[in-house]
Amino acid sequence: MDYADASGKLADYRRRIAALRAEMRDLQDRAEPQPVEDYVLQSTTGEVRLSEAFGGKDDLIVIHNMGRSCPYCTLWADGYNGVYEHLADRAAFVVTSPDSPAEQAAFAQSRGWRFPMLSHRGSSFADDMGYRGDNGWLPGTSVFRRDTGGIVRVSDAGFSPGDDFCSLWHFLDLLDGGRRGWRPKYRYG
């Protein structure tokens, strides 16, 4: 197929994806929020309740990260660093993982991460939110809102290579031959 024809067809696909996203947004707006308990998580300074992670915001974005052992989760987290201030202007934002708070702090420092982290170790938080499978932890995000009756989850989404939560995949897909089996690493070069 010639370049102009392919480009036009790709533009049509992107319009269709945008329309599908609008339908997804509408469905999400109509979904009944899910009440959740005020889980106790851990920080480097001690226990932190989920309600405290909201800070002064009404909305909270929680990332379910698999921890320092996962180069994919590290790739996603490296990306949050660039958008953290933008996100934090609209909603509270925190990354959770099964790693201990000390392990999280050391790894975050080695990566230059600026966002807050909490450990769900010792709690059922990730399990209850659906981010633990037969083979261990699963990556994704849950979004919560303060409600008059407590805390409710208003949406969630799992992560996987090629998803919309890491722009790198989409840049790689534009290359001749696409990803060609590329996998993230902790260090390059």
UniProtKB/TrEMBL annotation:
One Pfam family, short name: DUF899
Keywords: Coiled coil
Recorded superkingdom: Bacteria
Domain annotation Thioredoxin: ranges: 30-180
UniProt feature coiled coil, ranges: 3-30
The name this protein goes by in its record: DUF899 family protein
Organism encoding this protein: Microbaculum marinum
